[in-house]
Amino acid sequence: GRYMSIQAVELAILQFEQRSQGSQESYHDFLNHLRILANEAYDGDSKTELNRKVAWKFVSGIYNDQVRVKVMEAGWMQNRREAKPLPDLLKIAEATRANDYRRR
Fold first, then answer.
1. 3-state secondary structure of 1
2. HSE of 39 in the Cβ direction (CA atoms, 13 Å)?
3. Rounded to whole angstroms, what are the CA distances from 25 to 6, 7, 93?
4. pLDDT tens-digit map of 59-93
5. What is the pTM of this model?
6. Alpha-carbon separation of residue 58 from 2, 4, 13, 55 (angstroms)
7. 43 - beta bridge partners?
8. How far, in Å, CA of 73 to CA of 32, rounded?
9. What does the pLDDT look like over 5-52, one tens digit per residue?
10. Contact, 87 vs 95, CB < 8 A?
């Protein structure tokens, strides 16, 4: 990646680790921002490691309690090392949200 000072990397790690979905933020935007932050914070990690960090942060940071529980129950890892593909996790979250609204 591009050259960043140690302070900039530390800030990116802090922002990534503290990030959760805003109440009005779409799942798509939330996931995209996590990917950007992870690339800055953990530049040098393998793609597998980056995706696993982003996947966990996405799932654990979902604003809606019911959606977060559903996505966690569906499972976010593919095997012991790899997260499920991020587009798949996004689909599960969006489908769960849609189902929530239909039930009301």
1. coil
2. 9
3. 29, 28, 13
4. 999 999 999 999 999 999 999 999 999 999 999 99
5. 0.89
6. 24, 24, 15, 5
7. 45
8. 23
9. 999 999 999 999 999 999 999 999 999 999 999 999 999 999 999 999
10. no
